[in-house]
Each structure stands twice: as C-alpha cells, then as structure tokens.
Fold this sequence. Notes:
The protein is elongated. The protein has helices spanning 13-17, 19-28, 48-52, 59-64, 68-84, 129-143, 153-170, 184-189; strands at residues 31-36, 41-44, 88-95, 101-112, 118-127. The longest helix has 18 residues, at 153-170. The protein is built from eight helices and five strands. The protein is of the alpha+beta class. The protein has two domains: 13-127, Beta-Lactamase (2-Layer Sandwich), CATH 3.30.450.20; 130-172, no CATH class.
Amino acid sequence: MSHSADLSPVTHPWLQKDIFVRQFIEQAWDLFCIFDVHGNLTYASKSFNPVIGFIPEDFQQVADFIDSEYRMDFHKMFIKTLQTSTSSKLEFRMKGTSESFNWFECTALPICNEDGTLTEISFVLNDITLRKNHENRLIAMAFHDPLTGLPNRRLFKEQLQQMLLQAKRTNRPFALLYIDIDDFKMINDK
C-alpha cells in the first residue's frame, strides 16, 4: 500500500479560516479526522504522523491500521452514523509506527449542514492504552494466584459454570477430574 509522501495534514475549509478552532482540535484529542459521506478524508490532525507514520487520505487507510478483530466494527460505526446521524463510540487496537498496538477510544460525530443533512463525519480518538493495560492486570489478579500465577478457584468456578451451561445446551456430557496432591488443598485453603 502506498501512502502519500506529503506529510502535511489534509486541510478542511473551516479549519483553515479559524486558527483557534484548529488549535483546539489538534490539542483536545490524540487523533482527529473528518470524512465526507463517501469516506474521503477532508481533514486529519498532524498527530497521525507520529502515530501511524503518515496522514491518511481516506477512510480505508485509517481502517487498515486497526486490528482486524475490530475493523468490521469500525466500518459498521461509520455506516451507522451515515444512516442515523447519531454519534457512537468504539474501542479498538490500532497498529502504530513501532509495529506495536495501542488501544483507542473512537467517537464518531455526525456533522450536518443548516438543512440538517449529514455532510461529514468526524472521528475523535483518544489513546486509552494505559487504561486497558491496567484493566488487564486487574482481571489477571482477580483470576490468578498472586504467588504462583496459576488460575485460582474463582476462575475455576467460572469456567466450570460455562462448561455446565455448554453441556446443557449441547446435551453432551463432560467429566471433571479432582486430584488431591499431598494434601495441597488443605495447605492452599489456610
């Protein structure tokens, strides 16, 4: 995929005129872009350069950097905004210039003209990687023993419950094997 060698942001007519608005937008969100209803980019903040390495030219170039697990949801969010003219949010991972993935919270905001007709959609993105990393650590702590890192009783109970539900739903039996190794349960329960 070739990207534009021009690293300057695509400029939007009303953002060219109002320096205050442009400065506010550039600083309020980690990434900001505006697309017309056909998916053509009409504005992208300069912050795209350090994040993905270039200023995208259209919707698909932005979508290509989103983890494939979330790409369809990103497309659905665009279509939903086109159809309903309402805003919506989505969290997804996006590949950065360092080839690592960062988490972003994206809000799609409809932009309508004086007649109320949808003319553009803006996407405001905030990097939430730190928050997601903290959430993942808390989940790991809740379901794993802090000393050994092994799954704990809480995780066992949740997985057992899921297996029971699946066995009931599919009408297939399953087995559970319980082994007491050198009275380890008695030690572990203390």
